[in-house]
Specification:
CATH class of chain B: Alpha Beta
Largest sheet of chain B: 7 strands, mixed
Number of domains of chain B: 1
Low-confidence stretches of chain A: 1-5, 485-516, 663-669, 780-792, 801-837
Bound molecules: guanosine-5'-triphosphate, magnesium ion
Helix content of chain B: 25-40%
Strand content of chain A: under 5%
Low-confidence stretches of chain B: 202-220
CATH superfamily of chain B: P-loop containing nucleotide triphosphate hydrolases
Oligomer: heterodimer
CATH class of one domain in chain A: Mainly Alpha
Chain lengths: ~850, ~220
């Protein structure tokens, strides 16, 4: 009643005449001064609060100083007046559509000095529910409007950090919800605040909250608390090293039901692998593994807990029933320089029992993580159970698996070992059948099997990763004889036999006509490629099926390009098995609709021309007129068209999955990624390969068939070529040495000596010329310079070799077959000058 | 992530004037290294180290927050005092000013920190006192006796050390830790109520997730 009468007096005014609102507000504002009785001040604040909604500007203009004074003097003592003042201030500062400038002006007034903010942080420590709640709200508003100013004051506030921690300990749900939002904006982009809060024990408090909320099974509070943990760590190395020193990293594992002390040979418990999942849990777990991934990547991953995290991710992605996006995330968080023994870790994958709605699961035979990874990339989740549905989500997962594979085989020994495993072994001549090889060699069938196309496509991506820039792997791959290797039963059955139930259907291999001599892999690709071209030519170009044939053709062409690059022997084999005809036709018959295939054929043709350096039937001289007939400009134009294609341009290092076109037009983007259909065309490795080498190929197309390869000095792979040439020199030097022994016994022919000497000096003169060329190249192009730098040491070695050769020639007095020898020397010289241009 | 291998976690702060070698002492402790050209600390940096106190049979995990000596960070670094169990108050024996200023640092610590905080005064850079000519005073501006005297008056532990040579660095932290453990034993902190001391708990007891109730049926 007291309050009402006070207000009444205030409104009525001393004379009893009705007042305008602004007169009232001025009067009420005057009453906020400390000189007035507390009860009067309280009444005035309450009245002002009521007027603020409609008279924001007037209240702001008149009452702000008084309200701040009340805040400082009364709020701690009198919760009612405190609450009302806080709420009024919050209304004044809150930005809404119409009063943005006004609200910001009020905010600036409140933040003009540090004292009011310090008072707010002190009030945050007040355990009165209303005070604490209203303070959180006001601070949140201020942070939203002028974050950095508030952050600056926070760091100087005497009780800032401890109040914030006290709020985190508050058990009242509303406070919990609001406080985490407050902390999120308080720590945003302020490493200092992040550190202070970490020091005050924020991590422990936040984990406590998560645990109380039932861990990752919890709701939005768990989620927000985990987000805060992430925010305290993400860009703060100091906090990361602190965090690692606590027991919390193990707690992260425990949150996922993963035993933090799991040894490499131990199996993971079933309660980790099989869990119930819903949308909220997916979000929570995604946050947890995001934090774990950050802790792995921010240090050399040699520390023991890092390898537990890596194991946890591997198991989550490869053997658990986690939702697909989580598996993808887990794979992407694995470190690039993966040192984890993928082939040594044995997993026990699970498969959903059909028709049980994910409630029953079969345990499969244990398999190595590497095998499961390859299987995942090639066939998709759960042993290819859903391989017919090519959702964006599932393709993302498979491409993430392919990237992990790529990183894993980055080590030369590993990739060689894997390719070796596909080649016939010397002992039995019966090679082991890898699921990769099986999928690689699936014969194209008409009508086309969409799932098989995707499998073969992924297999070509993985296989290309095994071969790229490894001449040894390429050599090994040439010895693979898939026909003896691929049996008529699905190869993956070998690894993944469901505990009960029949073998999965759908991947049967048709029996081809038996050929007596086993076909090589290159030969098989060549055949499959022409088969695909043939089937494709029977389709309408807008046909869905035609699109799949295109993908298959492109998959083969990309793999072949990467294989034949710098491998003259593979080029020889490709040409000898009819490759030229296969390539030329599509270049010739271009339609406007298709911009990828002609460009790829032109590129591969260019590679065949460039690296056709082995003696054989189809020489550079054979190809040259064909290129001329097609026209170099036309070929270059085709290649440029490919570069402009969106399917090529859209590919990034971690994004190779594109939306399937009909899916976009029909469903207009409203469907979830778990429903939308996706497709892949290229992986990043190929795009990168193309971009680095297109120019070389383009230039090569215009060169004379007798010209030496200009690419060797200008490509990143020159080092490889040079090293193989070095081998040639070494073996020839050895031959010469042997020769020399025999020759030594024969009589001396002094004339020969001078002849040979002349030759050596001639060679040296040409070497000087070559040096000149290199210098020119260096001047003209930075990339050339870079590559020359890389090849310089080998050049030196070659020169040393030349010197040695010269010496030997001196000693070659009794050489009988001199003409033959000279020819040989010239060949060596050709190789050398080729490598150094 | 192999179990818990310590009995206590002790939070330390390191304070003192800029460039007296606070960061260097911490790096020496944690990495056994000396940096000739460290960057001045901005705000606060963290480092940690396990040490053993043999006569107590305890393994102690030191969590150290190395603070900036630059004046402009003083309000930030103050936030760390309250939660610490131990403090290394560092001055440079070749700089009288840093010794004089140590008094104001101590006043700051006493004002903001827990009253039971253990403080050790560390005179750093004693390696510079070995002058080239073999005389033992070199560039010293604060004598050992003077440091000792002040430490005694203000109830501080005292040691002279060098982050460069490594002499007495670990000992400084050990002495302070020993003193804290002693306070714990005498019950100065009623059941671990010092904000800077934490007893290790049995593995993972800080996370008791209810397990087992929500599990899919599995027919294997
Ligand atoms: N000779 C010698 N030099 C030292 C020693 N400790 C530190 N220094 C040098 O003193 C300078 C400052 O060292 P810091 O460790 O950065 O000093 P700080 O106390 O951390 O400085 P702020 O972070 O700015 O507060 C550096 O050049 C160090 O190399 C020591 O024991 N002996
Ligand atoms: Mg420092």
């Amino acid at each position: 009643m007291d309050f009402l009468s006070q207000t009444y007096i205030a409104l009525r005014g001393p004379t009893g005449a009705p007042q305008t609102a602004s007169e009232t507000i001025t009067k009420l504002s005057d009453r906020l001064s400390p000189g007035t009785l507390l009860a009067d001040r309280r009444a005035a604040v309450l009245s002002l609060k009521g007027l603020t909604r409609d008279w924001k500007e007037d209240v702001g203009e008149n009452a702000l100083p008084g309200l701040l004074e009340v805040l400082q003097n009364d709020a701690e003592i009198d919760p009612d007046i405190g609450k009302a003042a806080l709420e009024t201030l919050n209304t004044l500062c809150e930005v809404d559509e119409n009063t943005k400038d006004l609200a910001l002006r009020h905010t600036e007034y409140v933040l003009a000095k540090e004292q009011p903010t310090h008072t707010l942080f002190a009030l945050l420590g007040n355990s009165n529910f209303y005070i604490r709640y209203a303070t959180i709200q006001l601070l949140t508003t201020l942070l939203q409007n002028r974050r950095q100013v508030v952050q600056g004051y926070f760091l100087k506030a005497p009780s800032g950090a401890s109040s914030v921690i006290a709020v985190l300990e508050d058990k009242r749900e509303i406070i919990q919800n609001e406080s985490i939002a407050l902390i999120q904006s308080l720590i945003s982009q302020s490493p200092d605040i992040q550190k202070v809060l970490a020091f005050e024990g924020a991590f422990e408090k936040l984990f406590h909250t998560v645990t109380q909320e039932n861990g990752v099974e919890g709701g939005i509070v768990s989620q927000d608390a985990l987000k805060c943990v992430d925010g305290l760590l993400r860009f703060n190395t100091s906090n990361q090293s602190y965090f690692r020193e606590t027991t919390l990293p193990s707690s992260l594992c425990s949150l996922l039901q993963f035993p933090p002390n799991l040894q490499i040979q131990d199996p993971v418990p079933q309660e980790f692998s099989l869990q119930f999942w819903d949308q909220q849990k997916l979000i929570n777990v995604s946050l947890v593994i995001g934090i774990m991934g950050m802790l792995i990547s921010s240090k050399g991953n040699s520390a023991p807990d890092s390898s537990v995290f890596v194991r946890c991710f591997t198991e989550l992605a490869l053997s658990s029933n986690a939702p697909t996006p989580l598996k993808t995330q887990a794979l992407r968080l694995l470190p690039d320089n993966l040192t984890f023994p993928l082939s040594g870790v044995i997993l026990t994958p699970y498969m959903p029992v059909p028709e049980t709605n994910g409630e029953e699961w079969d345990r499969l035979e244990p398999a190595s993580a590497l095998d499961v990874l390859v299987e995942l990339a090639v066939h998709g989740e759960y042993n290819g159970l859903y391989r017919d549905k090519r959702t964006t989500e599932s393709l993302e997962l498979r491409s993430a698996a392919a990237t992990v594979f790529e990183n894993f085989v980055n080590k030369e020994e590993i990739r060689q070992a894997i390719v070796q495993g596909m080649a016939p072994s010397e002992a039995t001549n019966i090679p082991s059948i890898s699921p990769l090889l099986y999928a690689l060699c699936l014969p194209p069938s008409s009508p086309i099997n969409f799932a098989n196309v995707t499998s073969t496509h992924f297999a070509t991506l993985l296989f290309a990763q095994l071969l790229s820039s490894s001449s040894r792997s390429k050599t090994l791959a040439r010895s693979i004889k898939p026909h003896t290797a691929v049996p008529t039963t699905p190869a993956q059955g070998q690894f993944f036999v469901p505990a009960d139930g029949p073998l999965r259907e759908g991947a049967e291999v048709e029996d081809e006509d038996d050929d007596d001599s086993p076909q090589s892999l290159l030969h098989l690709f060549n055949e499959n490629l022409s088969l695909a071209f043939l089937s494709r030519s029977r389709m309408e170009s807008n046909d869905q099926e035609a699109r799949e044939w295109d993908k298959l053709i492109i998959a083969y062409l990309c793999l072949l390009s990467q294989w034949l690059w710098t491998d003259p022997k593979a080029v020889r084999e490709f040409l000898d098995t009819g490759g030229l005809g296969v390539l030329v036709e599509p270049i010739n018959q271009t339609t406007d609709a298709e911009s990828l295939i002609p460009g790829l054929c032109a590129f591969l043709l260019g590679i065949c021309y460039e690296f056709n350096r082995q003696p054989g039937e189809i020489t550079r001289a054979t190809i040259h007129p064909i290129i001329n007939r097609l026209g170099v400009d036309m070929l270059v134009g085709q290649m440029n068209r490919l570069r402009e294609d969106d399917r090529f341009k859209a590919v990034g290092p971690t994004s190779i999955v594109l939306p399937y076109p009909t899916a976009i037009s029909l469903r207009s983007g409203t469907t979830a990624p778990s429903e939308t259909e996706g497709e892949i065309w290229f992986d990043w490795a190929f795009v990168d390969f193309w971009k680095s080498n297109q120019y070389t190929i383009q230039r090569g197309l215009g060169t004379d068939p007798n010209a030496m390869s200009p690419s060797a000095g200008a490509s990143a792979e020159s080092a490889m070529l040079i090293s193989s040439l070095r081998d040639v020199i070494r073996s020839q030097a050895q031959e010469l040495e042997e020769m020399q022994q025999k020759i030594g016994e024969a009589s001396a022919w002094e004339t020969k000596l001078s002849e040979l000497q002349a030759q050596v000096s001639q060679m040296e003169a040409r070497l000087v010329q070559t040096d000149e060329k290199i210098k020119n190249l260096r001047r003209s192009k930075r990339t050339c310079w870079y590559c020359w730098m890389r090849s310089a040491p080998s050049e030196r070695r070659i020169r040393r070799g030349l010197g040695r050769l010269g010496l030997m020639f001196l000693r070659m007095r009794g050489m009988k077959k001199r003409m033959k020898k000279r020819k040989k020397i010239r060949t060596i010289y050709h190789c050398l000058s080729w490598s150094m241009c | 992530m192999s179990g818990i291998t310590w009995h206590y976690v002790l939070k330390f702060i390191i304070t003192g004037d800029a460039a007296v070698g606070k960061s260097s002492l911490l790096v020496r402790l944690t990495d056994q290294r000396f940096l000739t050209n460290p960057d001045p600390t901005l705000g606060v940096e963290f480092g940690s180290k396990l040490i053993e106190i043999p006569e107590e049979g305890k393994i102690v995990k030191l969590q150290c927050w190395d603070t900036a000596g630059t004046e402009s960070f003083r309000s930030i670094t103050r936030s760390y005092y309250r939660g610490a169990a131990g403090c290394l108050l560092v001055y440079d024996v070749t700089s009288r000013a840093s010794f004089t200023n140590a008094r104001s640092w101590l006043a700051d610590v006493r004002e903001h920190a827990d009253p039971h905080l253990t403080c050790i005064l560390v005179g750093n850079k004693v390696d510079l006192c070995e002058a080239e000519d073999g005389t033992s005073n070199g560039r010293r501006e604060v004598s050992t006796a003077e440091g000792e005297l002040w430490a005694k008056e203000d109830d501080l532990l005292f040691v002279e050390a060098s982050a460069k040579s490594g002499v007495n660095v670990e000992i400084a932290f050990e002495q302070a830790s020993r003193d804290i453990l002693d306070k714990i034993k005498r019950g100065v902190f009623d059941d671990d109520r010092s904000p800077g001391v934490k007893l290790s708990k049995p593995a993972n007891s800080n996370l008791n997730i209810d397990q087992g109730s929500t599990r899919p049926t599995c027919c294997s």
